[in-house]
């Protein structure tokens, strides 16, 4: 309904549609408004904005989505409850709005959409439903004109009939009339027809609420159109993040660092520790949110299904829990690495499928991946030996194989290499553990050989240096076959003697490479 809607409201008797308007035709008002009024309104708006920005950091601010329907939602927070109630209210409001819209348009050929007045704007609503026509134009026919006369003296009348703007009755009526200036979606009831007098206090409270609602609505629209990162995070996850901020554990969540197939990583400034054990929260944190869209994780089954640590649990779990297990796995693996002194993010907290860890980088800038940084040949060599050492310690001290080790999952920070992304890491005795290790070795060898490190071992030498398995084969195919044979021997052992198995036999214990 573009044509009718775009027309500005005419002076004098309103056009026919006005009589049908559910809010009634706007009455011409000649309310005085002092400069001080305008200023304070502006100030209030500004303060409101400031307050909102502080209270609702960007990434977690948007509160659309079905909070109410979620199972297991912890309702301990008052603010959360308030938000949930608001959501419920908004949904009811939208339903009412839809009925009004239908009634208003009837079977008229020209129809007006109330879409923009809706409180809840679902992500996945069909775009045709979101189409904006006249609402986007400057002049909204539903919005009463702002009072135009602005007498500077602050009073009206003459002699003994003089009344100032502080007069209670005048002020009350004025406030009631001014409610018409709130956005039409803000329900004010039928106060205007009833000669309702609002106290300044009530009026101001309503005004604040109307402004914040307008802001919220605007923000929803903005987000809907511009944010791709947020689409990756569902409402329940946002709620979780929001609670971390609300609890003061995180100061603010500043934005998204990475959107992958299986996870989204955010940057946050750390807050205060919330419990007594007084674990200091790092000044900057990375929040890894494991995606709850299940199909992305299908191809990872083999990592976790055969990991004996998770074997008993796997069969009993629903997909949502399996995803939480990835996060849990990353946490355990990081902790092992931390204990072995391998440079990696430090675990801060795990909540469901959300893992908070220390941020590798500074001032919101994440450390570059090894693939993106141009190192001097000296640093390159240094990085290589450091990685060799880390792979050995990971294998021997942590009893882990990274299983996705490459220049994509190593960051260069503070003049050294940091290992990240260890949710898929497995123990060497995992049925495919040695194959994963061999793949890791291939990635590392190739990267450093291409990078001009002449000392770099080839993948087979590297594999032996890490595992001490001393496989003698001098070609890829035979080497691979021996690896698989070893895995088979191990599997048989597991079948016979139960799940916990000793590490692979190795002759002697050559020292770990010392940087
Ligand atoms: P995935 O590759 O599975 O999406 P990662 O754990 O590799 O998940 O994280 C994706 C990206 O996010 C990394 O490549 C890195 O750039 C960034 N990142 C992850 N964790 C951190 C961290 N603790 N500090 C800084 N950046 C991080
Ligand atoms: Mn990664």
Verbal overview:
One of its GO terms (molecular function) is metal ion binding. It is an enzyme of class 2 (transferase). Keywords: Antiviral defense, ATP-binding, Cytoplasm, Immunity, Innate immunity, Kinase, Magnesium, Metal-binding, Nucleotide-binding, Phosphoprotein, Ribosome biogenesis, Serine/threonine-protein kinase, Transferase. Its main location: cytoplasm. This protein is α+β, with helices and mostly antiparallel strands and 515 residues long. The protein has 15 helices and eleven strands. It has helices at residues 3-6, 16-20, 35-55, 58-61, 78-105, 168-178, 200-226, 235-246, 301-305, 308-314, 319-339, 377-396, 433-450, 459-467, 476-497; strands at residues 155-156, 163-164, 250-259, 263-270, 284-290, 347-351, 354-358, 361-362, 365-366, 410-413, 416-419. It has a five-stranded antiparallel sheet, sandwiched between helices. It has a two-stranded antiparallel ribbon with strand order 1-2. The protein has a two-stranded antiparallel sheet with strand order 8-9. A hairpin with a 3-residue loop joins strand 3 and strand 4. The protein is elongated, with a radius of gyration of 32 Å. The protein binds adenosine-5'-diphosphate (ADP) and manganese (II) ion. Manganese (II) ion (MN) is lined by residues 408-409, 421. The site of manganese (II) ion has 3 residues, from loops.
């Amino acid at each position: 309904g573009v044509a009718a809607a775009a027309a500005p409201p005419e002076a004098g008797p309103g056009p026919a549609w006005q009589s049908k308007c559910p809010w009634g035709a706007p009455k011409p008002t000649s309310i005085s408004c002092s400069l001080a009024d305008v200023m304070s309104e502006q100030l209030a708006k500004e303060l409101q904005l400031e307050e909102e920005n502080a209270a609702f950091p960007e990434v977690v601010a948007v509160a659309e989505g079905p909070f109410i329907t979620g199972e297991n939602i912890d309702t301990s927070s008052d603010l959360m409850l308030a938000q949930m109630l608001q959501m419920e209210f908004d949904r009811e409001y939208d339903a009412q709005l839809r009925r009004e819209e239908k009634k208003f348009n009837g079977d008229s050929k020209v129809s007006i959409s109330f879409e923009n007045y809706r409180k809840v704007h679902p992500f996945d609503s069909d775009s045709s439903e979101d189409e904006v026509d006249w609402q986007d134009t400057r002049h909204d026919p539903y919005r009463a004109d702002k009072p135009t006369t602005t007498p500077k003296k602050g009073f009206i009348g003459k002699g003994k009939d003089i009344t100032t703007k502080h007069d209670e009755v005048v002020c009350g009526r004025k406030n009631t009339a001014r409610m018409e200036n709130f956005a039409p979606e803000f329900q004010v009831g039928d106060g205007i027809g009833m000669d309702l007098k609002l106290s300044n206090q009530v009026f101001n409270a309503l005004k604040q609420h109307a402004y914040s609602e307008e802001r919220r609505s605007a923000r929803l629209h903005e987000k809907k159109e511009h944010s791709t990162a947020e689409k990756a995070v569902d409402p329940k996850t946002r709620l979780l993040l929001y609670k971390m901020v609300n609890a003061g554990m995180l100061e603010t969540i500043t934005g998204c660092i990475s959107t992958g197939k299986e996870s989204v990583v955010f940057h946050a400034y750390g807050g205060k520790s919330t419990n007594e054990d007084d674990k200091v929260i790092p000044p900057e944190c990375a929040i890894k949110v494991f995606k709850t869209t299940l199909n992305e994780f299908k191809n990872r089954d083999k990592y976790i299904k055969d990991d004996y640590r998770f074997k008993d649990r796997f069969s009993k779990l629903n997909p949502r829990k399996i995803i939480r297990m990835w996060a849990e796995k990353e946490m355990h693996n990081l902790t092992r690495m931390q204990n072995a002194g391998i440079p990696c993010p430090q675990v801060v907290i795990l909540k469901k499928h959300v893992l908070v860890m220390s941020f590798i980088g500074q001032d919101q800038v994440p450390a570059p991946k090894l693939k993106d940084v141009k190192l001097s040949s000296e640093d390159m060599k240094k990085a290589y030996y450091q990685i060799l050492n880390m792979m050995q310690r990971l294998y021997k001290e942590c009893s882990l194989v990274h299983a996705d080790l490459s220049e994509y999952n190593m960051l260069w920070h503070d003049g050294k290499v940091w290992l990240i992304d260890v949710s898929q890491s497995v123990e060497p005795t995992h049925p495919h553990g040695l194959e994963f290790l061999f793949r890791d070795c291939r990635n590392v060898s190739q990267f450093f050989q291409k990078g001009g490190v002449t000392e770099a071992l080839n993948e087979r030498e590297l594999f032996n240096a890490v595992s001490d398995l001393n496989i003698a084969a001098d070609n890829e195919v035979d080497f691979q076959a021996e690896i698989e044979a070893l895995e088979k021997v191990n599997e048989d052992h597991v079948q016979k003697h139960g799940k916990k198995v000793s590490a692979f036999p190795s002759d002697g214990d050559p020292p770990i490479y010392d940087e």
